Amino acid sequence: MSSTIDRRRVLVMAAMTLLPGCAQQGSPEDERARAAESDSDIKIAVAWPWEAHADLYFAQGLEMAADEINGAGGVLGRHISLVTVDDQESVYEGRLAAQRLAGDPEIMASVGHLQSYVTVPAAAIYDLAGLLLVAPTSTSAELTSKGYERVFRATLTDQVIGRAMAEFAELREYRRVAIYYVRNGYGRALANAFEERSYDLDIGVVARQSYDPNQDFGQRALEPVLQEWRQMDLDAVFLAGQVPVAGRVITGLRSAGIDAPILGSDAMSAPSLITEGGFAAEGTVVASLFHPVDPRPAVQRFVSDFRARNDHDPDTAAALGYDAVRLLAHAMETAGSPAPERVADAMRGVGAWKGVTGSFTFDEKGDLVGRQPVHLVVRNGAFDLLPPQDQVREARMIEGGR
User: Fold this and answer.
1) N vs C: which end of the chain shows fewer Cβ within 10 Å?
2) What is the enclosing helix (H) or strand (E) of 159?
3) According to the model, what pLDDT value does residue 131 have?
4) Measured between alpha carbons, how far is 269 from 385 in angstroms, rounded to an integer?
5) Nearest-angstrom CA–CA distance, 279 and 276
6) Which residues pair with 107 in a beta bridge?
7) Residue 147 burial by CB count (10 A; 0-12/13-18/19+): exposed, middle or buried?
8) Buried (b) or exposed (e) across 221-259, using 16+ Cβ within 10 A?
9) Residue 80: C-alpha distances to residues 62, 83, 338 (Å)
10) pTM surpassing 0.85?
11) How many domains, the chain?
12) 268 phi and psi angles, rounded to 5 deg
């Protein structure tokens, strides 16, 4: 990582809040409001499973955004400083990380976590401490169902993604579909959304099975499930999975003789799907919020600059991280202050701020509105953007509700 990222552990911050003198200085909101008026660097925390997901380019997107902002004079004349903590994809570690970060009144916002099951309990801690949270990858509807004032989802929900993939199945005239989903909250929510929308569209979900991400995906291990599937004359399989395991799942399906087209979820739109799936991943269609061939000038500038810095194209995680930092900077400038309360008000009134993953308009709950995923296909060992006629129309997406 570059020097922009401050990797200092924040254990000392939490310890300070336990000292008698510090504990009586005022509410977390008051302390943070005072810190917001200083002339020191504006601290943005990032909680993420850094070690477990080194395969994603999230950090590179964050760093690039912060470096660009600081190179242009910063926010309100102050530099952005990123403070990172590893949540280890653990609810326990995620809570600890949130407590440590919330204990530092100089931190104005937090970006994270990767997994919804970590983000949801952490969000309660951030909000109680008056800290603003931008969640760029957490798709669970539960995140924004609590009435928090300072929590914003900078991605689409499982419901929107699941419905979009059912719409795509209808577009391709698939009528007999099997669902194969990872056995966790993410997989279940996607499977449910896909199945509900399929019912509306007269698509028959003829089989539904879950898998343990730690299981063996060899032909022998999959045989009890897939023996039945091979007799079903499937038009497609909807795979609600996550990388890198999803690539191994696809290899297992193909090895077991399932040759129906595979439709995948947004958590599969990463290079490791292809490195893990190899030739078996060819033809897989996934939902995504970003693709490097997006012709918009802002996206092409981002891709070109990212490639120059890192010698490879950005993935979706890089784009989401980049947008999260740029969005916060924009909202702070609009608010005239980095104070979380004022930034939250600016976020809800941000209008259609345009990032590299699309436009950002938030409803009262903190969810994105007016957005839909694009569809990518694995072709010749890389992701390619499907042409406009193969993209789900916005009107169809909105019809399904949220």
Assistant:
1) N
2) helix 158-171
3) 95
4) 11
5) 9
6) 43
7) exposed
8) ebeebbeebeeeebbbbbbbbbbbbbbbbbbbbbebebe
9) 11, 10, 11
10) yes
11) 2
12) -105, 0
CB atoms within 10 A of CB 394: 11
CA–CA gap between residue 49 and residue 249 (Å, rounded): 23
User: Is the peptide bond preceding residue 244 cis, with omega within 30 degrees of 0?
Assistant: yes
pLDDT of residue 402: 25
Whole-Å CA distances, 176 to 145, 188, 230, 236, 354? 34, 20, 12, 7, 38
User: What backbone torsions phi and psi does residue 96 show, to the nearest 5 degrees?
Assistant: -60, -45
Specify if 22 maps to a domain.
yes
Please confirm whether the linkage preceding 375 is cis (ω < 30° from 0): no
84 and 231 part of one domain:
no
Alpha carbons 191 and 84: distance in angstroms, whole number: 33
Q: What is the pLDDT of residue 32?
A: 86
Pick the closest to residue 247 from 214, 271, 223, 211 (CA basis): 271
Contact 14, 99 (CB under 8 A): yes
Answer whether 85's CB lies under 8 Å from 10's CB: yes
DSSP 362: B
Q: Is 241 helix (H, G, I), strand (E, B) or coil?
A: coil
pLDDT tens figures, 287-313: 999 988 888 999 999 999 999 999 999
Look up the domain containing 142 and give its range: 5-156+296-360
Q: Which residues of the chain have pLDDT under 70?
A: 1-26, 392-402
Residues 70 and 100 in one domain: yes
CA distance 204 to 75: 52
d(CA 197, CA 263): 15
Query: Residue 61 is part of a domain; what is its CATH number?
Result: 3.40.50.2300
Assess whether 61 and 137 both reside in one domain: yes
Q: Are residues 219 and 325 in the same domain?
A: no
Considering the domain architecture, whether residues 10 and 87 belong to the same structural domain is answered as yes
Other beta carbons within 10 Å of 375: 24
Predicted confidence at residue 157, as pLDDT, reads: 97
- Coil, strand, or helix at residue 183? coil
Would you tell me the crossing angle of helices 316-335 and 340-348 to the nearest 10 degrees?
110
